[in-house]
């Protein structure tokens, strides 16, 4: 993966925290800024990185695992994302990226709190074998949320994550996926209040304009703002 050497302030904070050995972090703020990308790629992920997308319909099976039908006509245990991250690669723990943690139901949130507890306190007993699992050294958690006010999050959860970083710029490496003429505008509009545009919109616009006209592509993606977005792109191209 191509990397960048200069990080905006918010991403530098995350880099500093991970380098210092912090293994519980919350990234919050505007959607479409690369929070998940960063969680999956930044810092030490030698033990693997596992994504957990939180929804109101998810169950504890997504966290710890469950018995699932197998090819032999029976049932076999399939580990959930967090248990996989606990085990890592067998010698070092992995990372779980818990996306949109504010969407998790009460029951699942309680399970996550137990799994995200300190290295010394967290444990889980397998329902069949009775084996007790604990997170391997190196296990880490990056939680993401589009929530702007951390006071809205459950106190018990936030207490486990004292390092909370508001993300207000696109991650530079995620930005590299865009054509160069779009990058500056994507940065400016990432945290522009009601005028904000996510990286995802620019990604799709970039793809569309390879087969459609600029005007057609902009209208599909940006709607009534198409004209102003195109004007900004043209101005940027002159500088």
Question: What does this protein structure show overall?
Answer:
The protein has 239 residues and is α/β, with parallel strands linked by helices. It contains eleven helices and nine strands. Helix 8 crosses helix 11, helix 9 (199-208) runs antiparallel to helix 10 and helix 10 (214-222) crosses helix 11 (226-238). The protein has helices at 9-19, 35-41, 60-63, 81-87, 106-115, 155-159, 172-175, 180-190, 199-208, 214-222, 226-238, and strands spanning 24-29, 49-53, 65-69, 75-79, 95-99, 124-125, 132-133, 140-145, 163-167. A hairpin with a 5-residue loop joins strand 3 and strand 4 (75-79). The protein is elongated. The chain starts with 8 loop residues before the first helix and ends with a helix. 38% of the residues lie in helices and 17% in strands. The model has no long low-confidence stretch (mean pLDDT 91). The strands form three sheets. A five-stranded parallel β-sheet has the order 2-5-8-1-9. Strands 3-4 form a two-stranded antiparallel sheet.
Summarize the structure.
The chain has 239 residues and is α/β, with parallel strands linked by helices.
């Amino acid at each position: 993966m191509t990397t960048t050497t200069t990080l905006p302030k918010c991403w530098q904070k995350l880099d500093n925290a991970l380098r210092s050995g912090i293994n519980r972090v919350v990234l919050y703020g505007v959607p479409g800024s690369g929070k998940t990308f960063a969680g999956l790629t930044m810092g030490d992920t030698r033990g693997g990185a596992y994504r957990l997308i939180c929804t109101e319909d998810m169950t504890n099976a997504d966290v710890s695992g469950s018995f699932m039908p197998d090819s032999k006509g029976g049932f076999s245990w399939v580990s959930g994302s967090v248990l996989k991250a606990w085990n890592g690669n067998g010698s070092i723990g992995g990372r779980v990226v818990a996306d949109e943690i504010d969407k998790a139901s009460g029951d699942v949130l309680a399970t996550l709190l137990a799994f995200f507890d300190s290295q010394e306190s967290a444990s889980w007993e397998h329902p069949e074998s009775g084996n007790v699992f604990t997170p391997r050294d190196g296990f880490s958690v990056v939680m993401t949320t589009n929530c702007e006010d951390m006071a809205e999050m459950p106190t018990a959860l936030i207490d486990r994550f004292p390092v909370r970083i508001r993300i207000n710029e696109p991650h530079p490496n995620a930005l590299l996926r865009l054509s160069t003429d779009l990058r500056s505008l994507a940065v400016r509009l990432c945290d522009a209040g009601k005028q904000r545009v996510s990286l995802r919109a620019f990604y799709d616009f970039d793809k569309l304009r390879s087969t459609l006209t600029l005007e057609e592509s902009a209208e599909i993606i940006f709607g009534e703002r198409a004209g102003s977005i195109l004007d900004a792109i043209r101005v940027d191209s002159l500088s």
